[in-house]
Write a sequence for this structure.
């Protein structure tokens, strides 16, 4: 009684090959000096919506200035009435936060002074609005234009205890020339209106309070799990680093309680100290307009449940970026430039020091017209492997006929042992494996019609005999060679 082997197929790849062939082409990974692989994922969010912090719409103010003096000119000569009055108007922001000063890039200041007096002249001055080149206050007269272009002007407002808004003041110096027979009553008035329109600024200073703002959505797409398997991964040290550049003159705290990993309809939120304690984003000092300040935020297994989140094999890591302004001082002075920006670069690194728990991969082999050996007494599927990759393998075999009907299967065959490892989980020595999967008599008959064999490999890293997890290291050049063949033992008569 003899035997012979019929080849079925051969698999050979390094772990680097497995990544390149089995994963999305956009997947980025790095190798350290020893060849240890880390997956890299990145996303960038830019926030430039300064109007979410504070915004200024058109501001229109008007007031009637009473004469508070009655004069009846019954003489034969003119009477000159001269008076100077000062008033103030509020300068509100859309956010109801006080504005301290604005350096304008454009806009219009429109002034109107109206009365019913025949001989009337005035000079209206707004001392808070100053030309940045000449330091001269904005001034309007009966004969001047009623509109002033605000480019190259600034407004510096005054605090007041009677209102949350700061104010600007105007001074009206007017002259009424009463001819003989003319008169004015004390209830007569002068109508003053002042409007700031279409305001754009280079820099705005103020106190922006402690409101929350949305900085945008940060999403990292992870194709790795769909490409190489979608469960069974337990990573030792995944980490996320957020590099933040801020040129807004506003300290903020970043809220990370909405960071999640999602897979299909399932969403798992990050927990831990990094989510319960807002992360401070530094800002330029009020005296350092135009500068940019950097902050770094680290998310890892020491301050979060990131390792648990990665166990769900997420296809996406997402975060709705929210920030609270001035977390340490609601009365802090702030500024915004027209060019202010927050840039958040999120880098996720997943070193392949991990556990595999029932990770599955399917390979198909064409059997042509089937495995029909009339002279066979028995058949086994032999698996010969040389393994440098730190996992053991269980093998399920499924045989299908030409109509894709399952005709035979065999389950839970341990065919590949873990290679010899060092204490730190790195490779010490490869291991050769030879395993025979015995096919039952019914299976021998079924294989005669089998057109395809599916091999379902289940990968597991070594299990621990203690409560401590064992994490093994995956190196780029680690290889596995697997040869599958049908070993036929001939009947005695042959």
């Amino acid at each position: 009684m003899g035997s012979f082997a019929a080849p079925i197929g051969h698999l050979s790849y390094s772990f680097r090959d497995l990544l390149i062939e089995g994963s999305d082409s956009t997947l980025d990974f790095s190798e350290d000096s020893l060849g240890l692989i880390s997956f890299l994922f990145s996303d960038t969010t830019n926030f430039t919506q300064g109007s979410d912090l504070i915004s200024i719409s058109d501001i229109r103010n008007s007031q009637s200035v009473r004469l508070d003096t009655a004069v009846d000119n019954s003489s034969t000569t003119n009477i000159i009435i001269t008076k100077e009055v000062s008033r103030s108007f509020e300068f509100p922001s859309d956010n109801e936060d006080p504005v301290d000063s604005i350096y304008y890039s454009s806009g219009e200041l429109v002034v109107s002074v109206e009365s019913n007096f025949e001989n009337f002249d005035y000079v209206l001055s707004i001392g808070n609005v100053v030309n940045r080149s000449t330091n001269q206050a904005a001034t309007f007269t009966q004969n001047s234009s009623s509109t002033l272009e605000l480019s190259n002007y600034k407004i510096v407002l005054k605090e007041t205890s009677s209102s949350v808004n700061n104010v600007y003041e105007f001074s009206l110096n007017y002259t009424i020339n009463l001819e003989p027979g003319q008169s004015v009553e004390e209830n007569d008035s002068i109508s003053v209106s002042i409007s700031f329109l279409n305001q754009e600024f280079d820099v705005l200073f103020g106190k922006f309070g402690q409101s929350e703002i949305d900085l945008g959505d940060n999403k990292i797409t992870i194709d790795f799990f769909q490409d190489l398997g979608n469960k069974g991964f337990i990573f030792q040290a995944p980490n996320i680093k957020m590099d933040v550049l801020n040129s807004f003159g506003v300290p903020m705290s970043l809220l990370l309680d909405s960071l999640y990993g999602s897979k299909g309809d399932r969403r798992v939120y990050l927990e831990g100290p990094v989510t319960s304690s807002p992360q401070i984003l530094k800002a330029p000092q009020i005296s350092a307009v135009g500068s940019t300040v950097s902050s770094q935020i680290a998310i890892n297994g020491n301050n979060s449940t990131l390792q648990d989140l990665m166990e769900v094999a997420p296809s996406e890591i997402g975060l709705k970026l929210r920030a609270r302004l001035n977390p340490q001082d609601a009365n802090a002075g702030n500024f915004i430039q027209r060019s202010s920006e927050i840039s958040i670069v999120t880098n996720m690194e997943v070193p392949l020091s991990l556990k595999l728990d029932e990770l599955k991969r399917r390979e198909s082999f064409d059997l042509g017209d089937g495995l029909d050996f009339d002279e066979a007494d028995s058949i086994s599927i032999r698996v010969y492997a040389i393994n440098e990759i730190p996992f053991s393998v269980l093998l399920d075999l499924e045989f299908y006929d030409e109509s894709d009907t399952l005709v035979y299967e065999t389950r839970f065959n341990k065919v590949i042992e873990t290679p010899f490892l060092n204490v730190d989980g790195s490779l010490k020595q490869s291991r050769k494996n030879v395993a025979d999967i015995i096919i039952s008599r019914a299976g021998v008959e079924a294989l005669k019609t089998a057109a395809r064999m599916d091999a379902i490999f289940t990968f597991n890293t070594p299990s621990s005999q203690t409560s401590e997890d064992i994490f093994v290291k995956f190196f780029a050049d680690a290889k596995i060679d697997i040869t599958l063949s049908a070993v036929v033992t001939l009947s005695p008569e042959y």
